[in-house]
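pls design
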C-alpha cells in the first residue's frame, strides 16, 4: 500500500481504542511489512470472532531491521531485553518465547513476541514484570496496568487505555530481527523522535 494511501486512511491507536475499545487483533498475514523506514497501513480486525467484527486501517511504522537475538538462544518464558528502535527515551524492550501461539508470533510455534517496556499510561517501567502463568507484562509499579502479550499487548487491567507497543519481528535463519513497531512508544510524537 502506498504511503499516500496510508496517510489518507491511517487511524491512530488512540482513535481505534476509542472506537472499539481494546479488542484489537491483527492477523499474522497483516504483519508482513516491507523493509525500510515507512509508515504502512494494515487492516486490523476489531472485535474478532464476534458479530461486531470489522476491518479498520491501522498504522505501523517500520525501520531498518536490527538484530535482536538468535532463535536458538531463547529459552521458554525467559525474556531477553534489548533496545529498539534507537538508544533514546523509553526504548527498552523485551522479546520472549511464551510456549503458546500469540498474535504476531514468530517462529515455528508462532509463540515469540516482542514489546516495548514503557507503560502507555504514564511511562512506568515494566522491566522484570513478565508473568509466565498469564503471558503478560505488569502490573505496572505506578498504577497497576497489565498487558496481554498473546493478543498484541491489549490492556488486561489498570489505568492505561492504549495497548503496549509491539515490536515487529522477522526471522532470517536462526537470527531474529526487529523491523518496526505497532503502536506509539510512550512519550514520543513518533517512534524515532527519542
Ligand atoms: S504508568 Fe503504568 S499504570 Fe500508570
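designed seq:
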Amino acid at each position: 500500500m502506498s504511503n499516500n494511501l496510508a496517510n489518507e486512511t491511517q487511524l491512530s491507536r488512540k482513535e481505534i481504542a476509542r472506537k472499539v475499545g481494546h479488542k484489537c487483533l491483527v492477523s499474522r498475514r497483516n504483519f508482513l511489512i516491507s523493509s525500510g523506514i515507512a509508515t504502512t497501513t494494515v487492516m486490523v480486525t476489531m472485535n474478532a470472532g464476534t458479530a461486531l467484527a470489522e476491518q479498520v486501517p491501522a498504522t505501523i511504522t517500520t525501520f531498518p531491521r536490527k538484530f535482536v537475538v538468535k532463535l536458538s538462544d531463547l529459552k521458554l518464558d525467559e525474556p531477553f531485553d534489548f533496545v529498539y528502535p534507537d538508544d533514546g527515551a523509553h526504548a527498552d524492550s523485551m522479546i520472549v518465547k511464551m510456549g503458546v501461539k500469540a498474535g504476531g508470533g514468530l517462529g515455528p510455534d508462532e509463540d515469540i513476541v516482542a514489546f516495548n517496556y514503557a507503560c502507555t499510561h504514564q511511562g512506568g517501567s515494566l522491566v522484570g514484570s513478565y508473568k509466565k502463568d498469564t503471558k503478560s507484562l505488569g502490573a505496572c509499579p505506578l498504577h497497576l496496568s497489565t498487558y496481554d502479550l498473546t493478543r498484541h499487548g491489549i490492556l488486561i487491567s489498570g489505568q492505561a487505555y492504549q495497548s503496549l507497543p509491539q515490536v515487529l519481528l522477522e526471522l532470517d535463519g536462526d537470527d531474529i530481527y526487529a523491523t518496526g513497531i505497532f503502536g506509539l512508544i510512550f512519550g514520543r510524537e513518533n517512534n524515532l523522535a527519542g
